[in-house]
Structures are given as C-alpha cells and as structure tokens.
Amino acid sequence: MRVKIKNKTFYHYVFYLLFVVNTLAYAQKKTQYNHFMYHAQSYNPAYVGMALQKKLILFYRSQWIGIEGAPKTQTLAYSSPTKMKGLGVGFGLLKDQIGPTSETFFDLDLSYLIRISENSKMAFGLKGSAHLLEVNYSLLTQDLSIGTDPLLLGKADNRWSPNIGMGILFYKTDFYIGLSAPSFLETLYFDRSSLSKSFNKLRIYAMSGFVRELNHHLLLRPSFILKIAVGAPLQLDLAASLIFRNKVSFGISYRLKDALGGLFGYQFSDSFFIGLSYDKSATNLGQYFFNNGSAEVIFRYNLSKVKGVKPPRFLF
Predict the structure, then answer these.
(1) Number of CB atoms found within 10 A of residue 261's CB
(2) Angle at 116 (CA atoms; ends 114, 118), nearest 5 degrees
(3) Which end of the chain is more exposed for a tag (fewer CB within 10 A), N or C?
(4) Facing residues of 86 across strands?
(5) Helix (H) or strand (E) holding 13
(6) Dihedral (C-alpha) 268, 269, 271, 276: value to the nearest 10 degrees?
(7) Hey, which bits of the chain come out as E strands?
(8) Which domains does the chain possess?
(9) Cα-flanking dihedrals φ and ψ of residue 288, to 5°?
(10) Rounded distance, CA 284 to CA 275, Å?
C-alpha cells in the first residue's frame, strides 16, 4: 500500500517512511544532547544531590531544523539534597516528539552519598520511571484510490510502561566518572500489528569529565559519554569547553560519525546559567536532506546551596 504525506516534499516523504519503519519497529535511542554534561541526572540517578544544592534545569532541543516532523525535545529536571545526611532526591520530566509519535518520560531519582576520603566521594543511585508512548497515525494520509488501511484510521494504543534503573558515581572536586543503566526492563509498549511494535532495550552509559586550570582566569573542561544499547552500535559523545573567569564558556562537541557542534554558555550569577549550542549532522541526512542543523538551549538555576560547602568545579 502506498502512503503519502500531506503537503510534504519528496524528501519529507522519504524521511517519514524511514521513521515509521525504523522508529516504530525498534524505537530510537534515548534523546541526544550536545550539553550532555548538564543532563547527567537523566542518565545516572547517582548524580542527584551531588552538588549539595537545589537545582532546576529547563531544556529545549530542535533537531534537523527545516525538516517537518523532525525531533523536538523539552526537559524539566530538579534535584536536591535532603535533611537526611547523604541522601539526595530528584525528578525529571521529558517530552520527545518525532513526526506522528510523542514520548513522555517521568523519572524519580534517589541517591546515597558516602565519603571515601577527604577529597573523594561515591554515590549510589536508584531510578524509578514511567513512560508513555503515543502514535498518531491521523497525521499520515493514504491514497484511497487503492483502498483503506485500518492501521491509519486512528491512534495506536497508548500505554504506560514502568521501569527501574540504577547508577554509581565517583567524584572529586575536579573529576567525576559514572556508570549507569537507567532502565533495566525490556518493555513492549504496544503490539497491535507488525507496524506498531516498540521495545525499550537495555542501555548502559559511561560518563566522565574533569576540570584543569590553564591559568588564573581560564579553565579547561573536557567530558565524554559512551552509550551502549542492545542491538545498536556504540555511540560516543565528546565535548570540551574553556571557561573564562568562571563566567563565559565556549567549546565544541562531537558525536562520533554523526555531528559536530559548538557550545556557548554564560553564568549570569552564582545561581543562573544559560547555555546554547548548535550542531550540523555529518551523516547522509545532513548531506542529502535539506536541514539547517540542530539547536538547543538550556537554563539552569540553583535555588539554594549548603553553606560552607563548595560544589564540584565541573558543575559551572
């Protein structure tokens, strides 16, 4: 059966066709970020409460600008220490839209911190999550001259899917390294037909970064995250930023065999930070399909901090 898209160019048609076959069949990887160093909570629950301050993060990413139906992501994350010594808590809300699909993630994170030495600590985290996947087939139209397809007459079943994950994090004032699996359970979200199958597969994340002082006013902060997903190739994201007078940060990001981007951030006060980034795809999508790259913006606000305690330097 032939399916066509309303008011789309040929390239948009191909994009949607690839999306339906690829994304609905096996589900895509977790959302990608250029500013992944500010989204450690999403990957690793051991991160919450680590900065010993109440922290709120708002994020928006528009991917492959210029292609209708391309991914768009909105994120809200909050983390805080508690009155119980060593215990941190946080929650996250993420909405991901790609063409006719919409995914919503709800996370609740707990962490427990232990001191290893005077300058180093270890945190253990537990993540409970719920996921809602919606597919709106009404956004696609069909050629009625050759008959109707019942799959495209309405929405697919919407189902809530619970999951659980955990993580571990070691850090010092100017260095951290963590390993996590934010969702252990392999979940079948819905399965009404061969075209509406979607699985959540086990993913493992390794993440690390450090800060080095180049001179009295300039810091270097490199970071990386390695993503391992069952049935998918390894994915490595690299980033490096220079931080001037603890105010202005600028740098580059690189997603292996995928995209190259630029990073910029400004610390307006001890509490408020804004980060911007732009990347251009190096894949066939960037070469043969019209798009203007991907952009994201992040807002971070520290609501309070523990008096007399200095947060890790890589959290600027």
Answers:
(1) 21
(2) 110
(3) N
(4) none
(5) helix 10-26
(6) 20
(7) 3-4, 53-62, 72-81, 87-98, 101-115, 120-135, 141-142, 159-172, 175-181, 187-191, 197-200, 203-210, 212-213, 218-229, 235-244, 248-255, 259-267, 272-281, 294-305
(8) 3-315 (2.40.160.40)
(9) -110, -15
(10) 28
pLDDT (tens digit, 0 to 9) for every residue of the chain, 316 residues total? 343 434 444 344 334 333 333 433 333 456 678 888 888 899 999 999 877 788 899 999 988 777 777 888 999 999 998 888 889 999 999 998 887 788 889 999 999 999 998 888 999 999 999 988 877 766 665 666 666 666 666 555 567 788 899 999 998 888 999 999 998 877 655 555 444 455 567 889 999 999 998 998 899 999 999 998 877 788 899 999 999 988 999 999 998 888 889 999 999 988 899 999 998 877 655 555 556 788 899 999 988 765 555 555 555 4
The helix or strand, by DSSP H or E, that contains position 17, with its residue range, turns out to be helix 10-26
Distance (Å, whole) CA 145 – CA 106: 43
The single-letter code of the amino acid at 104 is T
Residue 71's pLDDT is what? 85
C-alpha–C-alpha distance, residues 50 and 302, integer Å: 13
Q: Rg for the chain (alpha carbons), in Å? A: 21
Give the whole-angstrom CA distance, residue 310 versus residue 239.
Answer: 24
Question: How wide is the angle at C-alpha 113 spanned by C-alphas 34 and 236, nearest 5°?
Answer: 25
- What is the rounded distance in angstroms from the CA atom of residue 181 to the CA atom of residue 205? 6
